[in-house]
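Format notes (please read before filing issues)

Several people have asked whether sequences and structure tokens are stored in separate files. They are not. Every record keeps both together, in the order shown below: the sequence lines, then the token lines. Line labels are part of the format and must not be stripped during preprocessing.
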Amino acid sequence: MLNLKLSHNPLIQYRPIRTSDLEVLEKIHGDLFPIRYEYEFFQNVVNGRDIVSWGAVDRNRPDGKSDELIGFVTARSVLAKDSDIEEFRRYDSSRSEQTLIYILTLGVADSYRNLGIASSLIHEVIKYASNIPTCRAVYLHVISYNNPAIYLYKKMSFQCVRRLSAFYIINGQHYDAYLFIYYVNGGRSPCSPFFQLEDLLERPLSKSAVANSWITIFPRELVKLLVTSAKSGFMTVAAKLWRKENRNPSKWSKCKDSGSLLPTKHNKRMSTEGALSQFI
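Then the structure lines:
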């Protein structure tokens, strides 16, 4: 559907952000986001210093600015063990080579919204991450009141992992944020039973580590049983539980978004009114 604010048929194309985009990139960020970014951030983006980026342009612009940015996404690679995702630090600490792609900023100029540009920019990031063998996920933060962005990420199969209290400080006021993750290259939620069982079977753990890794998934009584059995044959007990789960499907249902086993829930979708912006 054509945006009614445009008087022409846009032809949207995507390209890397270049040094010549510096001024426009700064302006769009200033127009869209309540957070002001340092000049060094924009220099790093346009020069590709530890940041990858994609820009959207309209080749049919009637004002002669067919190569001027009308949308963008910026991201960087981080080691999974150094990320702020607690589960990856806790369960994947032995896999030091694994990486994640963190989306820094995403924005589309006001007159070009509702044309699918933001979705296409996110797809560029996902495609980039999928082509890195060591990458396991794309992740980002969204401020809690940004309903359009929240809806977009859910629609694109990002998983909302948790709500982070007082994550942002804007003009002296605290705002919560949501952490969203999109898994690639076989990556999956470190909180899922499948992930934890495989991790437990791959390497020996202390009794405390076993208890900590299973406590969020199974009842306390079962955790006590597993800990008690740890010294005298934990792997045998775990294998029996695994076979029993495969033979007798229980109250666990398959999560539509993640494919992991989670308790049945009814997720509410948020409306898409308002402008899309994503920032950290």
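For reference, the curators noted about this record: The radius of gyration is 22 Å. Residues 117-130 form the longest helix (14 residues).
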